[in-house]
Amino acid sequence: MLKSIQSGDASDFETLNDSEAWEAFLNGDCDAFQYLFRTYYDDLYHYAVKFSGEPAVAEDHIQRLFLKLWRRRDQLDKVEGVKTYLWTALRRSIIDTLRRKKTEEKYLNKLKDNRDGMQFTAEELIIRHEMDTMQSRELKEAMHQLTPKEREVLYLKFYEGMSYEEIEQIMSVSYQASRNYVYRALQSLKAILSSELAFGLLFMGLLSV
Fold first, then answer.
1. Which CATH code fits 2-104?
2. Residue ranges per domain, the chain?
3. pLDDT grade for 89, boundaries at 50, 70 and 90
4. Selection from 26, 203, 187 nearest residue 131 by Cα
5. CATH of span 120-204
6. pLDDT exceeds 80 at position 136
7. C-alpha distances out from residue 31 to 35, 64, 159, 164, Å
């Protein structure tokens, strides 16, 4: 079914907001389901690859998530924040799988020593702003010095445009903790980056909380 969704036409739902499309999906409307899948697939995939480090794993989790949603649609409730709901469900799915292999603590400790865990490029965090190769390399190297959760919070905040309330729900941390992660990460970047690059990012709003 999901294969047909990727090539289907759900353009009629582009005039609805996500909550209305979600409600239609709960009522069994396949076109609404297709619309939600096509709207969020790319961003969910990108996030899952960052979190799991494996494209095949990311795709598998998204496929299973939407299949589970479709099969259990009569048991689901209406939601206001569809994007937040999907990100939260996907993150939990990945972590639950990792827990079956090892504890989440061991996994996160592994990420701290694994440069492939939650990697970010300078281009992703400076959306639509061009920098030269040396500056991009400097920012990328600085990002690697942050903790995995700090990198994830920055990704959700500045690349996905999530609010602190949404990050709180997705990562299962308190509102204040999410703000603290962002604050510490940005303070670390300010200390690590050259004054010229830090000033440029500050000017673009990246280093302001």
1. 1.10.1740.10
2. 2-104, 120-204
3. very high
4. 203
5. 1.10.10.10
6. no
7. 6, 19, 28, 31
